[in-house]
């Protein structure tokens, strides 16, 4: 196959470029997804994707939709590079004499890729979620204070006035320092089990599905599919895998959120979180933000696969010797 001839540095660069482009395009939707997943029935701030984005712009400005984007843009390069390159690595070593991989081996390669990527994904998601959800919690606190002020109950107004102020604009550096100071490196890897629970099944579904959809557009097995086929295959495979593992994503998001809104549940682990969501919010809560996640993942992986398979990095690497000459 042609993709086996691509060097590891080229694969890493392609994966990084793909991640940067994808995140820039879809980050506001990802922010809405995090806020929709984190809000509980007791205090619902947003009714839909559009409602969340409109309220975010009104209260935090246009760039409020990109809160936490710097963390993603910094870490998405190694994250996507590891994911895509690891999948190729495992596919190569699971194949024998260039023969077509069985579905089981394709799933095993995806499993390996998903396991490898959590090294970067877990701290990236941990920091991103705190930054993305800070605006929701601040807005909820403000709303509660306003309701207390217009309330006829002096006790409610006093309680609102006594409510401690929260930091509305925490930075990734501040959060990282606090976590390292209080919990050590393990603080950045809170929710590791839930991240594995989401990313490993995602990769098991995504990579085999993408590979088989992409092959449908290949007229010759030794020639790459057209870019639009890779894009559509990445979109379909990504959105399908995203919706399939959305319950795990909801659990991961809840567990990694360090701050809670008023009267919102806290969780001690995966099982405790699953039980409380099921009992207090119902089974449909596990699919909160599912359409947002599909809207994020579809173009993200569509763009990623186009950049990756078109091979921008090969062109750049080929130009380096000529540039030096």
Observed structural traits:
325 residues; mainly alpha
Structure characterization notes:
73% of the residues lie in helices and 0% in strands. The protein is built from twelve helices and no strands. Helix 3 (69-94) runs antiparallel to helix 4 (103-149), helix 7 (192-215) packs antiparallel against helix 8 and helix 7 packs antiparallel against helix 9 (246-256).
Task: Give the gist of this structure.
With 325 residues, the chain is mostly helical.
Chain-wise SSE layout:
Blueprint: H1 8-38, H2 49-60, H3 69-94, H4 103-149, H5 154-162, H6 172-183, H7 192-215, H8 227-244, H9 246-256, H10 270-281, H11 290-310, H12 312-324
Number of strand segments? 0
Give the amount of beta strand, in percent.
under 5%
Largest sheet: none
Mean pLDDT: 82
**First CA to last CA: what distance?**
32 Å
Count of helix runs:
12
How do the SSEs run, as a string of H and E? HHHHHHHHHHHH
């Amino acid at each position: 196959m042609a993709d086996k001839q691509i060097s590891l540095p080229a694969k890493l660069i392609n994966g990084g470029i793909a991640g940067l482009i994808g995140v820039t395009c879809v980050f506001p939707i990802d922010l809405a997804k995090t806020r929709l997943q984190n809000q509980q029935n007791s205090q619902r701030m947003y009714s839909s994707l559009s409602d969340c984005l409109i309220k975010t712009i009104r209260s935090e400005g246009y760039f409020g939709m990109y809160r936490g984007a710097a963390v993603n843009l910094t870490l998405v390069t190694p994250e996507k590079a590891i994911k895509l390159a690891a999948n190729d690595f495992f596919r190569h070593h699971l194949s024998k004499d260039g023969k077509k991989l069985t579905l089981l081996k394709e799933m095993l390669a995806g499993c390996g890729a998903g396991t490898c990527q959590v090294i970067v994904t877990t701290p990236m998601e941990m920091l991103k979620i705190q930054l993305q959800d800070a605006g929701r919690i601040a807005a909820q606190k403000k709303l509660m204070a306003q309701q207390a002020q217009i309330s006829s109950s002096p006790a409610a107004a006093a309680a609102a006035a006594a409510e401690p102020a929260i930091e509305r604009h925490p930075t990734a550096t501040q959060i990282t320092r606090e976590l390292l100071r209080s919990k050590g490196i393990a603080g950045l890897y809170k929710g590791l089990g839930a991240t594995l629970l989401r990313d490993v099944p995602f990769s098991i579904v995504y990579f085999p599905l993408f590979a088989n959809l992409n092959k449908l557009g290949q007229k010759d097995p030794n020639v790459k599919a057209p870019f639009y086929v890779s894009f559509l295959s990445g979109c379909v495979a990504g959105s399908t895998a995203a919706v399939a593992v959305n319950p795990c994503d909801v659990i991961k998001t809840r567990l990694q959120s360090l701050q809670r809104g008023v009267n919102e549940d806290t969780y001690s682990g995966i099982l405790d979180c699953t039980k409380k969501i099921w009992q207090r919010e119902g089974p449909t809560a596990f699919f909160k933000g599912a359409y947002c996640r599909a809207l994020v993942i579809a173009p993200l992986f569509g763009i990623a696969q186009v950049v990756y398979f078109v091979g921008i990095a090969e062109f750049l690497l080929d130009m380096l010797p000529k540039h030096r000459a």
